[in-house]
Fold this protein.
Amino acid sequence: MNLYLRYFDKETLVDNVEKALDFLQSIPEIGLNADLERDIRDYVSSDVFYPKRYKVRPRIYFIIIKTMAATMFDFKQKKAVQQMPVPNAFDRRGLIATALTRLTEERPGWYEGEMKFKRVVLVPATGKYEYRDTLFVVHCKAMSGQDCYERILDNLRDRVDSRSQFPSAKGKNFRYRYLGMWK
């Protein structure tokens, strides 16, 4: 494992923490102290692969990135990028199913749609309006999850204050479940 360090236009690729600390010590603005040295050693010895940035002054940082690249050229060409694990969610065709493809997949039948939205309501005590989280659950006939979402919106827009805020179909505040084919 190698370490890539950068501070503005000064950069290096080293193979151990001692060389990284020598590089940082050669830059007077950084002000390497015992606490910073200990933190860098902890980061290098940890299993964390995310880049780490350290504050030098307000809005001024230097970064350290763990990499498998052997040379600076390989690092710049991203030839030693960490591979992300493949998700286990597969649809019936063996392809990775994304939220958008599942949402728009045509599957006519009954759906249970659940939407949590911000509803504008009048507070009688004060005479003012406020937003309240409201959960709306419905069973409807639809062609897809997207169609279910649109049918819920069409229904709610006629029945609630126009200032109410509705979530995106792709967000966490809308869920749907296929219940089965209609008869």
About this structure: The chain has two domains: 2-76, 99-180.
